[in-house]
# Entry
Amino acid sequence: MKKNTMKDLAPIAIPHGPPVESTAEYFKSKMETANMTRKYPVWDVARPTPQVLMEQARRDLMEADEKLVLKREEEKENRVVMDAKWLELREKEMLLKESFISFNKFIRENQEKRDRAERKMEADGQVLLRKARETEAMRCRVAEMEEVKRLMEHQVQDYTIYEDYLMSVVRNYPEFKQPLDVLNRYEALAAAKNTLAERQERDLGMLENARQKIAALTEEKKLFIMGLNNTLADLRWRYDKVRNRVIEWELALNRLKEAAAARHVELCHVRAAVRSLYLKICAQKRMPADAPPHDFEQQLVLVMRALLELRNIYRIAHRRSKEKDAESAQNTM
# Structure
């Protein structure tokens, strides 16, 4: 039974001396075993051991770092593209603004020309009508004057009383030398009245022109303010869009940082568990814990050996218990 027990146990080769001197021999054995064709038994299947989990965590961390680098490069490329598009849109905006201003100016000039032409046509029509009315009035006046002349010639004797009146005015007012001065005074007053009426009409025309100019200037400023409001709305929309993109990238970066931190925490837990298990095994076997705290490969090798020993011991104990059960059954029979 002792011979079978020694055969069943896996031989353990523990190197003697400093670990540094055994490094060359260790790598040489690793190369030889790597070149050899291995045949693993059925029960030797890869299981989620702490080393495997640690490697998986390290691989996930490396993949997360690579994705983060790719995302940052992509963000730089997108930033360059967005800056180029921003400049292109700015140039198009300036061209559109210049075109809009020139188009508005052209429309205003055409509208002003049309208004001036319409006003001129209306004024010409009014002048033509006024001239026609004046001509007709002049003709009527000539006819009336001729009729008045005829009547005056026939009734001149009836107006001698007026002549006497004018002579009395001349006698009573020394500033009048003759009756013609009274008539001249009346004509001067009538001319002054007509002059004042024409001046009033001219002032009203100037006021109307000033009102039209003020209205045109107000319309122009309204269009300019509308253009500025549209530009401000466009800039606000672009600012909101860029701010949303920045928030999205910041959230993605925060998620990547959180994932990397979680992976790092898991890796630290795995390393701490490996170190704790290594120290417990060394204490259980009463072996010196020579492996440095950061040499997890050597610690895992010792842990795997201990696990293999425990598994073999369990199998041997299980088989012996079965044999004892079989012998006790035969003895009872």
